[in-house]
Amino acid sequence: MSVYEENYLSKRPQELCHMCGRCCRVVTTSKPYFELLKLKADGDVGACEFLKIFKPFASIDEARAVDKELVDNIVEKMIADGNYDKDKLTFYTCKYLQKDNLCGIYEERPDLCRHCPSTPWVIVPPGCGFEGWLFMEREKIKAKIRKAKEDLLEMKVLKSKNQNEETLKKIEAVEAKIQGTIDLYKKYGSYDW
Ligand code: SF4
Ligand code: SF4
Question: Tell me, what's the pLDDT at 123?
């Protein structure tokens, strides 16, 4: 786990959780079920951990019967993003969620549960107590990245005005550091912000 995620997790206000259990009752993954099974067979820790607690619903409709809003929300987003494939989409439910919405293995729950919601970009169920906070976190990071891009432009100007080799090296080192910050969020779309 990155330093960022550690910092993020430690400052996440847990009291925002409504303890509704929706993020345990119906979930899905970015990878299809057959890929998870293959990863599990290969000993992948994340896949093993996930499949140890989650069992698949027999169909999307079965998951929809449990949480229609959540399932429709995900399906609609996938359709909008152009990556909906019903044969590759599986929903799961946790074996340990109790009727009172509490976790039956709370003290021993795996890291994936302790970390959830694990980044500001994770899709949480509609009405999740973290929705607003996650949005604000995403906005803060986006603002930081935009500032980093401005700084990069300033470095460019500085370079164009400087011929001293030593100074140029220092500027390039700063540039690399700034670029590293932008790259850190590449998978969330930082190049487009
Ligand atoms: S969906 Fe959100 S509010 Fe509900 S239990 Fe999960 S984290 Fe908490
Ligand atoms: S193990 Fe507990 S916290 Fe994790 S998904 Fe199941 S009920 Fe939720």
Answer: 87
Q: Atom 4, ligand 2: which residue's CA is nearest?
A: 113
Q: Is 129 in the pocket of ligand 1 (CB under 6 A)?
A: yes
Confirm if 76 and 89 have CB atoms less than 8 A apart: no
Helix axes of 131-161 and 165-184: crossing angle, nearest 10 degrees: 160
Rounded Cα gap, residues 20 and 105, in angstroms: 16
- Is the minimum distance from the CB of 109 to ligand 2 under 6 angstroms? yes
Q: Which tokens in the block code for residue 143?
A: 């603002």
Q: How close is the Cα of 15 to the center of ligand 1, in Å?
A: 10
C-alpha 37: how far from its chain's center?
21
Bridge partner list, 54? 94
- 3-state SS assignment for residue 27: strand
Residues of the chain with confidence (pLDDT) below 70? 1-2, 4
> CA end-to-end span of the chain, whole Å?
24
